[in-house]
Amino acid sequence: MNTVDIGNWQLAAVYLLLIFPLGTILLLRIPMFGETLISVLRMTVQLLFVGFYLQFVFDLNNIWVTSAWIMIMIIVADVSIARGCGLRFRHLGIEVFIAMLGGTLIPLAFFMLVVLYGISAHEAQYVIPICGMILGNCLRAVIVGLRSFYEAVRKHERAYLLTLAQGASLKEAVHPYLRDACQAALAPTVATMATVGLVALPGMMTGVILGGGDPMAAIKYQIAIMIAIFAGTALTVVLAIHLTLIKNFSAFGILNRKIFR
Predict the structure, then answer these.
(1) CA 176 to CA 174: how far, in whole Å?
(2) Nearest-5° angle of CA 119, CA 120, CA 124?
(3) Which of these, 222, 244, 116, 88, lies nearest to 178 by C-alpha position?
């Protein structure tokens, strides 16, 4: 069984569904009509470009080209994180890039070499989609984690400074905010794992089934990727916060307010 292709006219017809969200925006006078249209246009252009490019990458199946594409994915995610969490890129760009690199490549390497026995470790067809799923979830988690952490320190600055004045180290003073930020960042993934299969069929499982795979094989893939995603998000969030601490707090534990946009 092969995946049923969607014709150009059928794909064009899908855009008719935009009547409902766009109509809601106009009726309620929500100031995001233009932004929504631009987002839909960007999504279309970006996905069409990626579709053509990935076909080239899959056919070429060169480890260096695949690695270069993964680096581009991580760099784009890095910039998106800085924008999404409301912090200045120059105060966290390199540190978040390192965190994303480690948090993505470690579970990806484990998945490819252990779960898939290394058979498809160099296959772009496997590496790029799996990397994308891990990276996408890490991106969302890091945005929530960094935003929660730095906003909490700024909001409770008096209590934080009092803790430092009482002799606490930087690590001890930021611990409550680090704990709450990690909880906020990991909570969506934990909730997804608790309801997966009952509320919705997630991407990996749906893709295997639509590709003609056995449902049990799809379930095994989904379990493996969910655990890889959870490991990646936890590792990335903790690394991102710890690495940015070094740059954005002084030797006396004072937060550099220039980090905020």
Answers:
(1) 6
(2) 160
(3) 244
* Distance (Å, whole) CA 161 – CA 157: 6
Q: Do residues 79 and 89 touch, judged by C-beta distance below 8 A?
A: yes
The two tokens of residue 202 are 């997630």
Q: Which residues does 100 contact at the CB level (< 8 Å), separation at least 6?
A: 74, 77, 78, 81, 135, 138, 139, 142, 236, 240
- Entry pTM: 0.83
User: From CA 26, how far away is CA 28, in angstroms rounded?
Assistant: 6
Q: How far apart are CA 95 and CA 242, in angstroms?
A: 9
d(CA 221, CA 208): 8
Give residue-wise pLDDT tens across range 204-247: 677 767 667 677 877 888 888 889 999 999 999 999 999 988 88
Instruction: Give residue-wise pLDDT tens across range 20-57.
Output: 999 999 999 999 999 999 999 999 998 888 888 888 88
Distance CA 15, CA 47 (A): 15
Q: Are 209 and 73 in contact (CB under 8 A)?
A: no
Q: How far, rounded to the nearest angstrom, does the alpha carbon of residue 43 sit from its chain's CA centroid?
A: 17
The DSSP element (H or E) to which 80 belongs, if any, is: helix 63-84
The two tokens of residue 198 are 């009952």
